[in-house]
Design brief:
By secondary structure, the protein is an alpha+beta fold. It has 13 helices and 9 strands. Helix 5 crosses helix 13. Belongs to the CDC123 family.
């Protein structure tokens, strides 16, 4: 894989070619200062003005005098100065408004789907604070910032300095209608159900029509217009049967092969599969397979499950539940004041047994 193949999959490098075939999106160039803020893996402090809406009941909090106790604790903590990016804040909020008030973000190449647990298991954002929280919490985004070209054979140590924030108009996509297409030598070689951990009965029912519709869309609308001959493209079939392009990825093992293996994809020899149909042209020529998850398949957890945290940790890290923050500070204060026979004892959160 060459570095140019990675660059070609950069959102801004393909969006203008396929604007009419994807959801409306806006691109915001990022300063080096802001990129360094994202790369800093220290304490999470959102920049000044990047607030997140709180969901707790303020009347209940006031009745318990929790806020006063919390404020007393905060006064005793070392003050952390939040960074300031006023121009970026204004730009993000203006873009969110232009896109209808709801967006989902991605960086130069990757969406922070591994961090969705920070925002109630959704990438939908309505303010700049939610956008920043997702980006700052994502390992996928960190990979974009530090290791995007590390698997390339012509990789060099010259840092990439043209990172962008992409805000895409929010759409309620049906997971079962997303598909990943593997194009090799400008031929649709393989199509996989995108969310392959789940079984959708309509995919098995409509498998033949889906295989034809997806193959023809890629052949007629994408092949010949995308600059590479080998690549991966994610597409979505809408309720009105129109197709959307979701994203492009390099034809390389760094991209999830889903229901195929990279040995199959690289060799061009696809093994027989009970949950597949052939990608067959009108003249009978077969170019590959469309695979889906069958009813008897062993279903597995989401591939991003390992990135998630208990909900209490999310509430503490975002400040979305003030009562938990207050209880947390009370426990810490109590443990600090308690005498112990061992200097090695540490305070810790209580757990249910």
């Amino acid at each position: 894989m060459k570095m140019d193949q990675i660059r070609n999959c950069r959102f801004s490098n393909w969006y203008l070619k396929f604007t009419e075939l994807t959801m409306k999106s806006l691109v915001i160039p990022l300063s080096e200062e802001f990129v360094e803020y994202l790369k800093d893996n220290g304490t999470l402090v959102l920049p000044d003005g990047f607030s997140i809406d709180n969901n707790y009941d303020r009347e209940e909090e006031d009745s318990d005098n929790n806020l006063s106790h919390w404020n007393e604790q905060v006064e005793n903590q070392e003050e952390v100065v939040a960074p300031r990016f006023p121009d970026l804040l204004e730009h993000i909020m203006r873009c969110i408004q232009e896109l209808g008030g709801k967006v989902f973000p991605k960086l130069t190449w990757s969406a922070p789907k591994d961090a969705s647990w920070m925002t109630h298991n959704s990438l939908k954002c309505t303010n700049a604070g939610e956008v920043l929280l997702l980006l700052k919490s994502s390992d996928f985004v960190m990979h974009d910032l530090t290791s995007a070209f590390s698997a390339c054979e012509d990789f060099n140590d010259q840092p990439f300095k043209e990172h962008q924030l992409v805000l895409r108009k929010w759409a309620n996509l049906v997971p079962g209608m997303e598909f990943r297409c593997f194009v090799k030598n400008n031929c649709v070689h393989a199509i996989s159900q995108r969310h392959c951990k789940q079984y959708y009965d309509y995919l098995e029912r409509d498998k033949n029509d889906l295989a034809v519709d997806i193959r023809q869309f890629v052949e007629r609308k994408i092949i010949g217009k995308f600059p590479d001959t080998n690549y991966v493209v994610d597409v979505y079939k809408k309720r009105d049967n129109r197709m959307w392009i979701i994203d492009f990825n390099p034809f390389n093992k760094t991209t999830d092969s889903l229901l195929f293996t990279w040995d199959e994809l690289n060799s061009g020899v696809l093994q027989p599969n009970p949950y597949s149909v052939e990608l067959q042209h009108a003249d009978g020529h077969v170019t590959g397979q469309f695979r889906f998850t069958g009813s008897n398949s062993v279903l597995q957890p989401s591939e991003t499950l390992s990135y998630r945290m208990p909900v209490d940790f999310v509430d503490l890290s975002t400040g979305s539940d003030a009562t938990k923050l207050v209880d947390f500070m009370r426990m810490r204060t109590q443990n600090d004041e308690d005498t112990s026979e061992s200097d090695d004892d540490e305070w810790r959160l209580p757990c249910d047994r």
